[in-house]
Amino acid sequence: MAIIGYISRTEHFSAAHRLHSPHLSDAENLETFGKCNHPGGHGHNYVLEIILRGPIDEKNGMVANIADLKRWIKDSVLDYVDHRNLDRDIAFFATRPSTTENLAAFVWMRLCQVMPEGMLNKVIVWETPKNKVIFTGEGVTAKDIEECTV
C-alpha cells in the first residue's frame, strides 16, 4: 500500500463582485446581502489554497509536481478571476450569486477538469482574514462541471 501525502499551494487574487441573486427580488437581495448588495459592487483581496491528496510516488517522492499545480491554478483559475468582476466576466455567476461558497465551487470545478482524477482534496477561499470557505467537491455532478464556464 502506498504512503499517502498532502500538498498545498496558496495564491492571492483580487476581484470585484456584487452579492445579488437572480432568484430573489431586489428587496430580498437587499435584506439578505445588506451593504454587499450595493449596485456598484465591492472588491476583495482573496486568498486561495488548493490542497491535493495522493500517493507519494516511490520514484520521485512527490504527490504531484508543484510546478504542475502552479500551472493548473494559473491557467484554470487565476487567469480568469484576478482583477475581474466575477459577476460580469464569468458566465458561471450569471445564474448564481457570487458568494465565496459559489466561488470555491467554481474553483473546484475548474481545477478538476485539468488535474488527475481524485487528486484534488480541498479548495479553501478566504474572502477576508476572518471569513473562509472550504469546499471538497461534495454534490458536484458532471453537469455542474459542464456548466462551469468563464
From TrEMBL:
One of its GO terms (molecular function) is 6-pyruvoyltetrahydropterin synthase activity. The keyword Zinc applies. It comes from the Eukaryota. One of its GO terms (biological process) is tetrahydrobiopterin biosynthetic process. InterPro entries: 6-PTP_synth/QueD, 6-PTP_synth/QueD_sf. It is an enzyme of class 4 (lyase). Pfam families: PTPS (PF01242). Its cofactor is Zn(2+). GO terms for cellular component: mitochondrion. Its EC number is 4.2.3.12. SUPFAM superfamilies: Tetrahydrobiopterin biosynthesis enzymes-like. Pathway: Cofactor biosynthesis; tetrahydrobiopterin biosynthesis; tetrahydrobiopterin from 7,8-dihydroneopterin triphosphate: step 1/3. Keywords: Lyase, Metal-binding, Tetrahydrobiopterin biosynthesis, Zinc. Belongs to the PTPS family. This is 6-pyruvoyltetrahydropterin synthase. It comes from Coemansia aciculifera.
